[in-house]
Amino acid sequence: MTGSAAKDRILADIRSALHDVPRAERAEDVAVTRDYLDSHATGDVVGLFVERVRDYRATVTRVPEAEVPAEIARILAERGVRNLVVPPGFPREWLTAYDGSRLTDDPPLTAAELDASDGVVTLAARGVALTGTIVLDAGPGQGRRALSLVPDLHLCVVRTSQVLPDVPAAVRALVPDRPTTFISGPSATSDIELDRVEGVHGPRTLDVLLVVDS
Amino acid sequence: MRVALFIACYNDALFPDTGKAVTTVLERLGHTVEFPMAQTCCGQMHYNTGYRREAESLVGAFNDAFRGYDAIVTPSGSCGGHVRHHHETETAPNVYEFSEFLVDVLGVSDVGAYYPHRVTYHPTCHSLRMLRVGDKPLRLLRAVEGIDLVELPEAESCCGFGGTFAMKNSETSVAMLRDKMDNVHITKAGTLCASDNSCLMHIGAGLGRIKSGVRTLHLAEILAATK
Amino acid sequence: MSDEKVNVVWLGSPTFPNAAHDALRDGQLRRNLKHATTTIRDKRLRAVAELDDWETLRLAGSQIKDRVMRHLDEYLLRLEASVTAAGGVVHWAEDADAANRIVIELVRAKGADEVVKIKSMATQEIGLNEALAADGVTATETDLAELIVQLAGDRPSHILVPAIHRNRTEIRDIFRREMGKYGVAAPDDLTDEPRVLAEAARLHLREKFLRAKVAVSGANFACADTGTVAVVESEGNGRMCLTLPETLITVMGIEKVLPAFADLEVFLQLLPRSSTAERMNPYTSLWTGVTPGDGPQEFHLILLDNGRSATLADRQGRSALHCIRCSACLNVCPVYERTGGRSYGSVYPGPIGAVLTPQLVGVGTSKHADSLPFASTLCGACYDACPVRIDIPEMLVHLRAKVVDAHRGEKLPAPEALAMKAARVVFGSPRRLAVAERLGALGGRIAGIRGGRWLPGPAKKWTAARDVPVPPRESFRTWWRKAGRR
């Protein structure tokens, strides 16, 4: 759109700046040594995931699949959630024990409606054990990004089979053109005297329900 | 092994005792030390202040002065670091900082020294991060008989010398120096030791000004001391 | 042209030693800085020690950046094609002025008179907020520290924690005094507890997030192969800006491009541990162009040069562009720890600022920028901490040489230049050195005998707090010769 002249000048400046780079050199000719480890996680990867998510002061509960509905209802009740955002594709059978009201995103909820809700329940795309990270990629049961952002509580259901050992595996498993969010604990700031405060703009409470796959 | 002493110009002019101590220790260990009289300055001060042209013009003379030696030993971490990193000459790889030479080349950590005093050690930046001497000076000090070696708090923090930095940014330099001196006082050591007289001169000049009574000594001088 | 770069260097900034003079006298600032830098320094060491292959990761990070710089033109074209294919619009801006004009036109086209902003070094560098204000558009900084700085009418002092120079009581007072002028006021019972202050910021900003039509961000990384842009943050204000508004404008320095999406596996390990010293920061957002039904439906990516292509031309200075803005070098720097960020007179403080700022504005163009490469003891702590292995000490020395060379041949050489030349002559022969040593010993002893603890002239700067070393009676070489050694 703007400034093809500017583009040409910038590219010309870059090329003249790189006078020392041989013309025949291709980008791939510049060596990159990828001797780093694929994973730093050892032993029980799921156990490590639980430990590392908890390090961020998020809660983690491990349950067999049969107990998911009851556990979701218990957590939501404990947190006082009566008005729950439910993204499209979230398994209905998991909400059978929850008796509060549901906000579905069809038609899309406004930001104000999301703000007025008590919380959101979503699935996840991946978990990363070493860093205690949950990855959302707006796939089924996760919803668009705003759903897991504006409500003050995020209950995220992750399957043990989704937990990858470390960051490289997660990056390799991602689909680049999906809007993706890495979530490592609740929103936090250390801007005031480097004192960590959980909860600024994102959900101040992050509860993780880890479903043990058989 | 032909061993040459690269004294460094400021040691030559201001701290001759350090060069004498290096000679004493090496001779005690059975080595003959030569002092090539043609040596002057490695050009570090010029180089680090931005006078690269002047610095480069000193490289050839340095190489001529030290050609033919198996090891060129210096009691200056910063000059040793400068030569090894910035002189592209045949002699540059043969330059060793004093503690490196003792521990790595001679394989010695106990040089038979005796120094019955409380000492704290400041690892100077260029020894630490340019030459990566690590704990070699401390290994040498720990083997000294009678020594009461105490750890310096925030030891790896710069003393604020930085060559011409001490003049160009004197106020910041002095702020760093004060913190270093406070840490020295916390140790209650009577002697502050380092492997580089430039930093030691800076801290010593500060300690002298406040009449702290703490003595500054180069590592070589402690290692040269005997009963 | 030079006035278009005023925001890299704050206009009227004094030279580093003069700016440091004031900072060093501010006891509160010194205490805050000491606390903050030592805390994060220790934490970073622990975070880095957890990864056995840290050095290998650093090397890979530096090599990837090297590859980018050597083929920057190709990668930018590839990025433009990928972003465009994904529904984004790419703009090219040669300097601050051009970038600001593009943003203003885009904001105007949406009929907006306010934007929400994610903390971004690039938009600070171009002075976007001021440019928008001059055009009647209010820009609200949404990062907590940036909000504090903005409300105080202040300048940031750290890349990562811009309000590092403020303590909780000062922040409470700023919130009480200023918040109401721009939106939701701070509650009457506001205390100085960080949790309470963060809550006040949440309430103050929430209405702005929910209302905003346009957001402006920077970018940590942009992947040439996929067009994916990454923003790494902690508070969620970034996610708010990247998700809720209809239009997103991202201003990105041209050096931020990465060859491939896969390279994120290196940088997402290096950056969080180096910057906030965490295994992973709370939120990282990746987006590729426009996703129907999710997030902004209009995405503009502005590629900013503003001195970067000129920096690229210096082979020894080029790698300053590798910087991923983690701020680890600030936290380990003994000079920064004493003077704080504002003494550097630029949006880029600390060791990286001392090498980046003079290059972005041009060596020899201002006394201020020329003073920055000398604002270091060359202790080397920054190089060890840098996650992409930028050899800052070596680059500082290189830039010092450029500064010195820029002033060679001046009719009235500085006293330092004369001294350096004189020293060169003395060191030119061992005989001359021996004579100088004898004269020095004599002079030094005379000064010493006269109690010469306070010297006049330039040496005054030494003797303000330090004694003058008194030269010995004889130099080492004299002793050696007299002792009949060989």
Biggest interface pair, residues each?
Answer: A-C, 78 and 103 residues
CATH architecture term of chain A: 3-Layer(aba) Sandwich
Give the % helix of chain A.
10-25%
Report the uncertain regions of chain A: none
Broad shape of chain B: globular
Strand content of chain A: 15-25%
Please state the average pLDDT score of chain B.
Answer: 96
Weakly predicted, low-confidence segments of chain B: none
CATH superfamily annotation of chain A: NagB/RpiA/CoA transferase-like
Q: How many separate structural domains of chain A?
A: 1
Summarize the structure.
The complex is a heterotrimer of chains A (214), B (227) and C (486). Chain A contains five helices and twelve strands.
Structure in words:
The complex is a heterotrimer of chains A (214), B (227) and C (486). In chain A, 23% of the residues lie in helices and 24% in strands. By secondary structure, chain A is of the alpha/beta class. Chain A has a single domain, classed as Rossmann fold (3-Layer(aba) Sandwich). In chain A, β10 (188-189) and β11 form a beta hairpin. Chain A is globular. With 227 residues, chain B is α/β, with parallel strands linked by helices. Helices cover 48% and strands 12% of the residues of chain B. Chain B contains 13 helices and 8 strands. Chain B has helices at 9-14, 16-28, 44-49, 52-56, 59-66, 77-86, 98-105, 125-130, 136-142, 165-168, 170-186, 197-209, 219-224, and strands at residues 3-5, 33-34, 71-74, 95-97, 118-121, 148-150, 191-194, 215-218. In chain B, the strands form 2 sheets. A 4-stranded parallel sheet of chain B has the order 2-1-3-4, sandwiched between helices. In chain B, strands 6-5-7-8 form a 4-stranded parallel sheet, with helices on both faces. In chain B, α12 (197-209) links the parallel β7 and β8. Chain B is globular, with a radius of gyration of 17 Å. Chain B starts with a strand and ends with a helix. The model of chain B has no long low-confidence stretch (mean pLDDT 96). Chain C folds into 3 domains: 2-304, NagB/RpiA/CoA transferase-like (Rossmann fold, 3-Layer(aba) Sandwich), CATH 3.40.50; 329-406, no CATH class; 415-482, no CATH class. In chain C, β5 and β6 form a beta hairpin. Chain C is built from 23 helices and 10 strands. Chains in contact: A-C, B-C. At the A-C interface, α1, α4, α5, β9 and β10 of A face α2, α3, α4, β1 and α8 of C.
